[in-house]
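Is this the right way to post structure tokens for a design question? Let me know if I should format differently. Anyway, here goes:
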């Protein structure tokens, strides 16, 4: 189990060091910001949604390793998904962090399973996801985890 934990930690550190899909999206048609005042994490997500499919996604922001790595892994997980699949993934991810739900469908997102032991970090890990939800619902005010 500790080897698995080391591997998980390595993936999180890697995505924090070299975030994927970091920046802005030129053809974005959905955007939202998120803020986690407890930790100081800020994230801005940009998406390009074509029909019901997310065909482009990027993020910017600054925050702790968990929030940055989570946003990075989230963009990889959501690119090419339908809006409905994105909602299901978010629910699955949220369950993983809160009740320890089934990680089978989550792929790499399972690396955050350990966050469940640190409840204050759950907001760091879900911040970017909340921002994406807001963007998909086209709320144009910033979201807060508070
Ligand atoms: Zn944080």
């Amino acid at each position: 189990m500790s080897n698995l934990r080391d591997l998980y930690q390595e993936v999180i550190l890697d995505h924090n060091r070299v975030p994927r899909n970091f920046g802005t999206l030129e053809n974005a048609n959905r955007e939202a910001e998120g803020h986690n005042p407890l930790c100081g994490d800020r994230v801005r997500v940009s998406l390009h949604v074509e029909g019901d499919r997310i065909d482009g996604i990027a993020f910017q922001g600054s925050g702790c390793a968990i929030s940055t790595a989570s946003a990075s892994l989230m963009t990889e997980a959501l690119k090419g998904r339908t809006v409905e699949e994105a909602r299901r993934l978010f629910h699955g991810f949220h369950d993983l962090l809160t009740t320890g739900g089934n990680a089978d469908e989550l792929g790499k997102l399972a690396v955050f399973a350990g966050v469940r032991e640190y409840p204050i970090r759950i907001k760091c890990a879900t911040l970017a996801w909340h921002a994406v939800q807001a963007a998909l619902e086209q709320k144009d005010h910033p979201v807060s985890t508070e």
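Format looks fine. Someone answered above. Worth noting: The two ends are 33 Å apart (CA to CA). The first strand starts at residue 30 and ends at 36.
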